[in-house]
Amino acid sequence: MLMKNLYLLAFALILFSCDSYQNSENLSNPVHTIETITLLGDTLYSPEIKGGKAFDQFKSAQTTYFNHQNNAEALIWYGRRTAYLGYYQEAIKLFTLGIKNHPNDARFYRHRGHRYISTRQYDKAISDFEKAAQLIDGQPDQIEPDGLPNAKNIPLSTLHGNIWYHLGLVYYLKNDMNDALKAFSKRSVTQKYDDNIVSGGHWLYMINSRLNKIEESNAVINEVHQDMDIIENMSYHQSCLFYKGELKESEIIIDEIALYSLANWYVYEKKDMMKAKEYYQSLLSTGDPYSFAYIVGEADWIRLFEKN
To answer: Known InterPro entries for this protein (predicted)?
Structure first.
């Protein structure tokens, strides 16, 4: 029934053509709609649009696009700002338009793939990230500007790194650990900051643990230490220190990433499914359903507790 609902949702969304964004001066707000149905069967709707910085940035990006409709950068930011408002289906349509008009620009596949993850369309996400990886092959990397800058206003990621990171994540969601490992390993060559090391290390530790590659999982977290210069990925940092044994469970600051990390650790390190279930339940009852921690926790829950 869930898959049937997802197919009906996809069909309904197709009826809204992305062509409406071209040759138009319609500066209206995004259309309120069903954004997705989660793997747990919850229906997620677009949020109410409120005034504020995010909305102002969206309107600015929208105006810029309609004044420069042939400009790829303008369309990318229009799509990104739309997604930051929580209108992922609208953003997907904008990135689809970008692919139509700029078919060799990997950035549109990268960003559409991200929003396919948000809306639980994992096979489509894999297809987009694989296409993006083909397009960047042999090309120089580039810094990816942050839409939501960190405290130091230092962009920490690159186009290549984000493509491999998200591809690894979606393979992880599909429980394809071998391909997840390949993608995250390729992403590691783009690492420049300590933030990249701890975010990648978090996923690589869990991937290698699932593959029973204990030596490799330990090698990953051995690169993490207490006095790293972390700008924004504090949650990944503390998780890695916990895996390493340098932080006690009682010392962890609880957030969504911590809940997922602890749930996973109890599954693969302690083989304690009851304790793991408690952490998964806490994550899924309190978390943001669009966060990566929630999305992977949801996929794990189905695989671990509902399939048998």
So the answer is: TPR-like_helical_dom_sf, TPR_rpt
Q: Which of 124, 118, 113 is nearest to 162 (CA)?
A: 113
Distance CA 111, CA 210 (A): 28
Type of residue at 81: R
Classify domain 2-136 by CATH number.
Answer: 1.25.40.10
pLDDT at 21: 52
Domain range 140-252, its CATH number among 3.90.170.10, 1.20.200.10, 1.25.40.10, 2.40.420.20: 1.25.40.10
pLDDT at 26: 64
Contacts of 194 (CB under 8 A, 6+ apart): 228, 229, 230, 231, 237
Would the CATH topology of 2-136 be identical to that of 140-252? yes
Burial class (CB within 10 angstroms; exposed 0-12, middle 13-18, buried 19+) of 218: middle
Alpha-carbon separation of residue 56 from 29, 46, 67, 164 (angstroms) = 11, 18, 17, 31
Cα–Cα nearest to 300, from 282, 277, 272: 277
Q: What is the Cα–Cα distance from 196 to 307, expressed in whole angstroms?
A: 34
Q: In whole angstroms, how large is the CA radius of gyration of the chain? A: 20
Nearest Cα neighbor of 106 from 83, 145, 137 is 137
Please give the Cα distance from 247 to 240 (Å, whole number). Answer: 9
